[in-house]
Amino acid sequence: MLRHPVWQGAKTEEYQDILSFRNAVRQDASALKMSSYFCASHKYPIGGVVKAQEMKDIKQLLKNIYGEKNGTSAFLRIFPLIEKFPKKQKNRKACFSQEDVVLITYGDTLKKEGESPISTIHKFANKYLKDAISTIHFLPFYPFSSDDGFSIIDFYAIDPKLGSWNDVNAISYDFQLMFDYVLNHFSSKNKWFEYYLEGKEGFKQFAIEVDPLTDLSQVTRPRSFPLLTEFKKNDGQIVHLWTTFSTDQIDFNFKSLDVLEKMIEVLLFYVRQSATILRLDAIAYLWKEIGTTCIHLNQVHLIVKLFRSILDLIAPDVMIISETNVPHDENISYFGKNGDEAQMVYNFTLPPLLFYSFVKEDATLLSAWAKGLYLKSKKNTFYNFTASHDGIGVRPLEGILPQKEINALIEIVRSNGGEISYKKNSDGTKSPYELNISYIDALWRKNSGKDPMHANRFMASQAIQYVLPGVPATYIHSLIGSRNWIKGVEQTERARTINREKLQIEEVIEELKKTESFRSKIFYPYLHLIKTRKKQPAFHPNADFEILDIDPGVFAIKRYVDDQRIYAITNISSTEVALSLPLQGALSKMSDLLTGENFQLDSITLKPYQFIWLS
């Protein structure tokens, strides 16, 4: 009789199979070597509720990634980590809700003298955003050496300049938390890299060594830096290491089981620290094979499935989101063939295509693209955003816009004070990768003088983001109406600094109090939009939708569930638009959810950049 909860419901042969692994693990001391931090800090009891079939599936995934022998060895290392982890119960009735709204921020975007920046964010969110956002996404808040947090020195610590884990955990009582799980690389200042250079056991294979004469021309490059960086090991050996993003960011060698084990320990640690969403940063580049593009390789997808399987087993409410700044079809591949990879993917095509549509005052291409946002599984959805800590991606426009139109957007960005980041192509040339500008200033009509419609135009763009199927996310600088931080770019000489300004909270609040300030004109209408949306069942991320082709100057979408239907209509042009909607049976008029105003369906006039949600 299988009395232990681990084996309840398992067949005898499944019990024997898993038991043999368990015994093998306990006899293999090397498989039990975890990080000293993890072991010292968390005395987990043996015997969490582990289901036999799910463990078999995990074992098979590892064999598919690493082969029969190494896959079994990987399983022997991972099994005790999973078994010891205190299993969390599933509390969410559904994967997503119309109440899901994410705020994206750095830990120190808002600062106050004598207070940890993370605590400052917490207080601001509690006072102003409690009824608006559900989740706070903290961009990397770990100790780092470069790239504004994405070159991590210690995956287990909070940067003391930002606060502590106590500050982070305090937020978890009021908001859900999204962490960055930076998988592709680690800092050259990380102790793990020091151990690699020393040749310490367990770290010898942490980095990817490549002969500099190797032909790497097929490798897809997101940056214009050299791919290989020279280092000297402690024994004097010169090595050339794979560094996708910068000379300070050493790519992990995920072919090493030591790396896999360490990063799964990190994954479990973040779940322990109350993360409910994990962002898989730069996941597309994780696995390298010489002679290939080294992007989106099959092993990458299998590793995403592995993380998903582990989380489904020990923390079923924790979701993963893939961050892949690539064309749409490549991007959505991270849902998996059966919806078994990431629950959400960044909707990277939306920001540049929306920008283009407002520039042209024509929603034709945007509407045509949006018709393809249907997903088969209710367990998957898009992560809709327009601005983030990075710029506006250019690659997602491949196959949608001709280069001539992309070049025109580049000129607008430059004219509006922005910068352009480039990537290196296989033939040695460079091409635009990212438009570095605040989304607010991308939509600025600089040539029109003061541009009195600037705030309205920006809010119209956000209204479209918030009515599309998916979970919406707003960058904090968009919410509080921040403009280009030109001085920051001059200080750091990095283009991405343009929308990463650090602000004194007292100054922001004073500006928000002034009804005529630009920040106020953005912040309060934005909060009203979010709060209104959260109350509508038809805006559930997976609710049905239909794109309506009404007028080139209008983006219109019908969202509906059994007991509600909403016609969300946005004028993206600088002129009035007259339109009509088909009569809804005996219903000849509908009310705007945002203003309460009634509209006759056969005679609707929208002012420039006006948006209405009729129901």
Describe the structure.
Strand 6 (228-232) and strand 7 form a beta hairpin. This protein is α/β, with parallel strands linked by helices and 615 residues long. Among the domains are: 12-84, no CATH class; 97-102 and 136-343, TIM Barrel (Alpha-Beta Barrel), CATH 3.20.20; 544-614, Immunoglobulin-like (Sandwich), CATH 2.60.40. It is globular and about 75 Å long. The termini are far apart. The longest helix is centred in the N-terminal third of the chain and has 17 residues, at 68-84. The strands form 8 sheets. It has an 8-stranded parallel β-barrel with strand order 1-3-4-9-10-11-12-16. A 4-stranded antiparallel beta sheet has the order 18-19-20-25, covered by helices on one side. Helix 3 (52-66) packs antiparallel against helix 4 (68-84) and helix 15 (454-467) runs parallel beside helix 19. Helix content is 33%, strand content 18%.
Provide the spatial order of strands within the biggest beta sheet.
1-3-4-9-10-11-12-16
CATH T-level topology of the domain at 97-102 and 136-343? TIM Barrel
What is the correct CATH architecture of the domain at 97-102 and 136-343?
Alpha-Beta Barrel
Q: Roughly what is the average pLDDT, rounded to an integer?
A: 91
Shape: globular
At the fourth level of CATH, the homologous superfamily of the domain at 97-102 and 136-343 is Glycosidases
